[in-house]
## 1
Amino acid sequence: MLLGKQHQVRLALCCLIAGGHLLIEDRPGMGKSTLAESLARSCALAFKRVSFTSDLLPADLTGLTVFDPATASFRFQPGPIFTQVLLADEINRASPRTQSALLEAMAAGRVSVDGTSHPLPQPFFVIATQNSLDQVGTSPLPEAQLDRFLMRLSLGYPDRAAERDLLMGKTVPTESLVSTLESVQLIDWQQRCSQQHCSQNLIHYVLDLVQATRQCGTGLSPRASQGLLAAAQAWSLFEERPHVTVDDVQIVCAAVVEHRLDRGIPSEPDGGAPLTQALLQQVNALR
């Protein structure tokens, strides 16, 4: 259980409710894996962890076709990707070929092996962690893969009070967490999220944000605009409102768009969001 990180935890839940995938970037030992496993346990979802080392092959992730002597036939042996919550640990240490094996799964909820498509369990949620790019053995993710992640979060150092509680053992072990949401309820929340009312003015506000990024050449994709709206809908659902406001969009904006604007290379080492702040100020000034 993470101490003093309520905002980041809530954003991670929004990402899950919105049906997206989450990228967590930070230094080692900051609680990235703890957050991933805690989310899975609290929602009673099947959880698997894969360390993305340099020698990890795509088949190690997706599975492969093997010969079964008992039946004298070939059968598909599913890999660890066949789960509901997949922790792709240190994704930026793996080869681009292995990273790309996640693309189809993240986009379509299925994997193809030997020409056969295999559906993944639902809901399917990827939480990828990566160390800061100044760490040894890391490389930036390609833009196509960055765009598959609805949000990027950075946990940062805990405040003094939270770290004191950590040192005094005032934490709940991940193994003892009790699920508060079943997978069926989670799917219901995801459906409710998509039904949150968005006014025409709100839609135009999102369009203004997206169009502003396209004027300087770093433009957000239509997938990004859909993700921004979905994340804002999830946040409004947590606020127990039937409609989405501009404030909802602004709260989730940095987590959704910053990694797309900076192309995965943060301009501030402390996880700030200068590009998003400038974008919000620019659009608000024009309106």
## 2
Amino acid sequence: MRSVVITGTSSGIGRATAHLAIRNGARVFGSVRRPEDGARLAAEFGERFVPLVFDVRDEAAVAAEADRVRAMLAGERLSGLVNNAGVGIAGPVLHQPADEIREQIETNLLSLFWVTRAFAPLLGTDRTLTGPPGRIVNMSSIGGKIGQPFAAAYVASKHGIEGFSEALRREMALYDIKVIIMGPALVDTPVWDKLARTIGRYAHTDYAAAFDRGVGMMVENGHRSGLPAESVAEAVWHALTTPRPRLRYSPARHPLIEQVGARSLPKRVLDWSMERFLGLKPERADTRSGGA
């Protein structure tokens, strides 16, 4: 029986991935921040779901739960680690509260260091354990390739995941542990409902209209055009189980438009289109004599 650790399983992609893995016969150690979420998922998924209660930013708590997983594996290796936990909070760089910026960087990026170091021995760096080497799937996004206005902290964290994963992949070659990036485009998850509540938050700034327009567009497109979380879960499971996984997966509902097209456009063209749509071009004062 495969055993996998998945962080952030209370909802969205993490929950869908846990569900799919269990349906395929795996045992899932799923991280949640609240005990009640763990109890709810255990009741829903059955004995093959083992809740791990920790905040991925808490290095000591992560390490303690890794020790518990080691005991339950009884000398066997993990088949996979899915670094999925993440948070996205929109805001202009000049005005977003520092604690929100810090929360996104620490949850989305720094946590990968703590979680990976805690579970790497169980994936195969501890050569005393039995079984084939496990795999690591790190959850990036289209934001790991393209910078969306008003999502600088989120985008920075996802760009960081891309670089972290590339470096880690080369380090883990020593143990034959494969490292795979999952970079989906828009995904229809509850995150959009949380994002919608930020509309109007920066009404006191020069970004008021552009921010509300940008967030409104993201929320609408996320629900209307977003890929189901279950589709991303299928890509994650494929990356964990196929004999020769790709280095990076880019699931999308409309791959040519959302992934290939957006990433292949010249950056100046993307700048122009975003500035024009959001109204981010400055108003130019008439400098002619008399203002005429």
## 3
Amino acid sequence: MPTDAEYDRAAAALREGELVVYPTETVYGLAALATDADAVESLFEAKQRARDKPVSVAYPSTSAAADQLPLTERERRFMDRFLPGPVTVVVSRGELPPALTGGGDRVGVRVPDHPVSLALLERVAPITATSANVSGRASARTVADLDPEIRAASAVVLDGGETPGGQGSTVVDIEEGVVHREGPLVEEIRAWLAREE
């Protein structure tokens, strides 16, 4: 597990507009400070990702997300039930940079259920929560799996060992009642959506 000094170095790098690799409960993620449009642009370049493909953001808790984003009561109930965990909730972007969302007005929000992610997020948030891989390539579950381009573009790599799950998070828009990507907990999420309509 990373040391306090490594966490502090990663947080400082993010505040300076640099990229950081960190583990989540699904796969390794690539972090930029989500409120820094230039850092977000650097992330898109490193991933070789089309600018119209949004990236999600991570917070240390649902209350931290609610402090910054205009969540509906239904979104808040859902997040309190399923987060932290391998779920991305699509909500209003609020004041976050449009670069995150290809100019769209909605953004995916995660609260990862991983001690390294949460320790980093306690120091600096929100950060981007997109997989640490070049677009179109396999996601990394260990630091050894990282694409060379991602490693080269990152100021700090936080090694948390192998991630527990190799599947991306379930992506759901609560207000629309739509599951955009199936992943962990999808049946429980569908049941919640049906029950809470």
